[in-house]
Structures are given as structure tokens and as C-alpha cells.
Design a protein that fits this description.
The structure is a single chain. This protein is mainly beta. The chain is built from one helix and nine strands. A hairpin with a 2-residue loop joins strand 5 and strand 6. The termini are far apart.
């Protein structure tokens, strides 16, 4: 286990920043082992998957928590993100304290991306 939350490491609880974002054509970002939320590290064995919506600062905002829980992944060898719905401003999201609100009826923000097939070399 590579996260630093074990009982043996209580004295050395320095959080490491997330790895640098790898940009893809169309704004996608590689996600390979990133510490999110409450120190949980997410990993997958599918290196060709890329986020089609970049790395949002938050997709869920409730009392006591603000973080990115939602993603749109695409297989980078065959698909590219042509565009993505930009996130609303934080001021708009917290206007009524947290989510859900009258403007955003869910506790998760909408994640939307237009994906396009990559052309195969002839």
C-alpha cells in the first residue's frame, strides 16, 4: 500500500501533491494514481484511459467536503475529447451554501464531454 495513512507512518504524514497533469489533444488529462478526497489513492491498469473533462477542482460540494468525485474517461487511442462543458464558478455553486441548490439540483455537478473518434492511419 503506497498511501501514507498507515499506523506506522503517523509521524510522517506529509501529503504528496498529485502527479503533474499530462495534457492530451482536446484537453484530456492522464489519471494514473492520484490522491483524492480523504487521502484515498486511485489507480487503474488501463493506461490508455484519459479524462475527457480535465481535472476539475470539484464536482461535489457539500458541508464539510469539496472534491472531484466524478469523471468522464475515454480510451485515448481511439477517442479524443473535442470539448467539455466548463464547470460553473465556485461562487455560483456555493451561492446557497452547498449542493444541491435551486440552480444545481444534484449534489454532483454535471460532467459532459463531446468525444470524437480518432482517424486511423491509412
Amino acid at each position: 500500500n503506497n498511501n501514507n495513512n498507515s499506523d506506522d507512518d503517523d509521524d510522517n504524514d506529509e501529503r504528496q501533491p498529485p502527479p503533474p497533469q499530462e495534457e492530451e489533444e482536446g484537453g484530456g488529462a492522464a489519471v494514473r494514481g492520484r490522491t483524492v478526497g480523504l487521502g484515498m489513492e486511485l489507480r487503474h491498469a488501463l493506461p490508455a484511459l484519459r479524462s475527457a473533462v480535465g481535472r476539475p477542482a470539484y464536482t461535489n460540494v457539500v458541508r464539510g467536503f469539496e472534491g472531484d468525485l466524478d469523471w468522464v474517461f475515454a480510451e485515448a487511442r481511439q477517442l479524443r475529447a473535442a470539448r467539455a462543458l466548463p464547470p460553473p464558478s465556485r461562487a455560483d455553486v456555493v451561492r446557497e451554501v452547498a449542493l444541491p441548490s435551486s440552480a444545481f439540483p444534484s449534489d454532483h455537478l454535471c460532467m459532459l464531454a463531446e468525444l470524437r473518434w480518432r482517424r486511423r492511419a491509412a
